Amino acid sequence: QVQLVESGGGLVQPGGSLRLSCATSGFPFQYSAMGWFRQAPGKAREAVSCIASSDGNTYYADSVKDRFTISRDNAKNTVYLQMNSLKPEDTAVYYCHTIISYMNHWGQGTQVTVSS
């Protein structure tokens, strides 16, 4: 059974940092690309960042480039999202994502709120 469990969200002031974690189980993590998405109230879910399984290539949405860093620890079956210089517009529920056998799998999400 594929499981993705996010943690690390919270309330942070503008300019602050958070690190999200996504602990996984039930699938061959080291061979799976992993991604982070987010959904703000009243908006569609959008891709934030992803990391390949093999060569570690990464993708970032323009809105987070140079502020967010995705990484993975294959020994711990965990993917991370380091978020720096946070802005109020980064406020959203952040979801971990992977595709296994052509099926989308999502975590339950973790709330990130950037506010003074």
Residues in helices, as a percent range? under 10%
Q: Which structural class best describes the helix and strand composition?
A: mainly beta
Mean pLDDT: 96
End-to-end C-alpha gap: 40 Å
Based on CA inertia axes, which overall geometry fits?
globular
Q: Segments where pLDDT lies below 50 for 5+ residues?
A: none
Helices, by number, come to: 0
The tally of beta strands, per DSSP, is: 11
Over all CA atoms, what is the radius of gyration?
13 Å
Major β-sheet, in short? 7 strands, mixed
Spell the H/E element sequence. Answer: EEEEEEEEEEE
Portion in beta strands = over 45%
What does this structure look like?
The protein is mainly β and 116 residues long. It has no helices and eleven strands. The chain has strands at 3-7, 10-12, 18-25, 34-39, 46-51, 58-60, 68-73, 78-83, 92-100, 103-106, 110-114. Strands 2, 4, 5, 6, 9, 10 and 11 form a seven-stranded mixed sheet that branches. A hairpin with a 4-residue loop joins strand 7 (68-73) and strand 8 (78-83). The radius of gyration is 13 Å and the shape is globular. The model has no long low-confidence stretch (mean pLDDT 96).
Keywords:
single chain; 116 residues; mainly beta; seven-stranded mixed sheet; four-stranded antiparallel sheet; 11 strands; globular
In short:
With 116 residues, the chain is mostly beta strands. It has no helices and eleven strands. 30% of the residues are buried.
How do the strands and helices of this protein lay out in sequence?
Elements: E1 3-7, E2 10-12, E3 18-25, E4 34-39, E5 46-51, E6 58-60, E7 68-73, E8 78-83, E9 92-100, E10 103-106, E11 110-114
Parallel strand pairs: 2-11
Antiparallel strand pairs: 1-3, 3-8, 4-5, 4-9, 5-6, 7-8, 9-10, 9-11
